[in-house]
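Minimal example, chain plus S-adenosylmethionine.
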Amino acid sequence: MDQNKTTSYIPALGYDFLTAYYDLAIKLTMPEKKFRRILIEEINPQDDESILEFGFGTGQNLIMVKNQNQSIKLTGLDIDPKVKDIANYKLDKNKHSVPLDLYDGNMFPYPDHHFDKIYSCLVFHQLDADSKANSLKEIYRILKPGGELIIADWGKAENKIMRLAFGIVQMLDGFKTTNDNVNGKMPEYIASVGFENVKITQSLNTAIGTFSYFKAQKKFSDL
Ligand SMILES: C[S@@+](CC[C@H](N)C(=O)[O-])C[C@H]1O[C@@H](n2cnc3c(N)ncnc32)[C@H](O)[C@@H]1O
């Protein structure tokens, strides 16, 4: 991978001009309250933990995680400057202060063994195979030994109707980045960078596909 060039990326809703409508689109197409509430339960933020959201988008999860536990040290990382402005506006409105970082899609701007937990929601289906692998490698590097990864994203379609319904997401985000998700490859990607205890904790069948929660842990011995 070229370390000096910003990696090309898929904006929140597939096309740059649609980013302003992202929150509305999620509200209309997904059981938003339910899938975000489950995500917060899976993250289970504890006092004083340092937690990163990879691909914070318009900041909806950041607000909910902070509402759940004010004492955590929360940080957001994304690649798109446009979402940073939207997320900052919403965080201000909710009286939360969360440092939001941008990067170029290569090395994450944090030292080794830095975070207790890293979570990500609806991001990995927008990454091609190289970016999935590189992002997971970086997440592994910056997690503390024993630290937890929580990913909420499109997973293996649970039946033919779910496979068909996922066509809507694939039309917006393309097939190249989404096929491995719907074919159930996420656990393989996660395990391939060294994570252990890789599991799917639950899945939801939605109007546009099967949405799954993946969890994994960095080895305690990886210092
Ligand atoms: C569909 S949005 C999800 C936003 C938010 N996490 C949520 O739950 O609503 C995907 C986000 O991933 C970001 N993204 C895409 N490629 C990325 C990359 N290589 N590194 C970091 N963020 C990326 C996009 O900019 C966008 O904000």
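The chain has one domain: 16-217. The chain has a mean pLDDT of 95.
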